[in-house]
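Reopening this one. Same input as before:
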Amino acid sequence: RVPHPAIEGLVTTTAVSYTPSHGKSWAYIKFCFRSSLFSLVTFANHLYLTHLLVSMNMTIATRETLSPDHPVRRFVTPFIYGNITINAWARQALVLPHSTVGRAFAFTELGLQQAWHAVRECLPASKRSGCLPPLAAEEVAPPYCSKYTQSRKQFEAAASAFAGEYLESFYPDGIPQQPSAAGEPCDEVWAWLSHLSESHGDAAAVAAVANGSPTEARDYVRRILARLITFVALEHNVVGNVGSLAQDVSFAAFSWPKGRLSGTKQLAMRQATLMCLTSSTTPYLLATP
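Same output, byte for byte:
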């Protein structure tokens, strides 16, 4: 296989093809593939992308720049509810050295540092900017549209319509960039956008929006809110609910002795513990589901 650019030079790979005719080697390579994919999704897509990159940055930007009664903060709050508590726990239990991830995954202490260094580049390019969407002219359709991609597009379209109607009720003429004639300061949403662009390392799109019309600014905020909902609701539900895959370390394991078709008994306990911790039920915001 060809190594990913983010990890090239860190690992040694060999170009070998396997087919069902290889017998035990075919079974082993399928186990390695399932386990590696399971580890990647849990570490990169779940822990890093949805928790640390998307929801944490959105929580910090919202609380530091938007007033409690600001319409965008009121819209965002249900989707980042409990995030500070959850991510503070995740830091202690999953991120720090010698935590559950360090004990369960197939990383040395140096390897874990390298994984954190490379994790963002291992994500699809369309997701590396978190909640910040590219400008409409820069969006590129994926070469392959799976059933999940189709359902994700439908979900994001519904979230976009919801956010759009909400914003239009508060900003019928768009979001102005300059202070109003009455002497009121610029809308706090610009400080919010600036904070998000700094934390995501993508200031170009926000700068372009700031030079556009008020309706273009409102439309960009709509797209941000739609991406937020999609990441923390749909995508988190998909990459987080993988506990059933962790029940049997002979099906998929975070680490395993080389050449064996199963993780160890110790790994089974660590893997089950990690899945129990990451699969806790989110409390309902309403009295009934």
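So the earlier flakiness isn't reproducible anymore. For the record, The radius of gyration is 22 Å.
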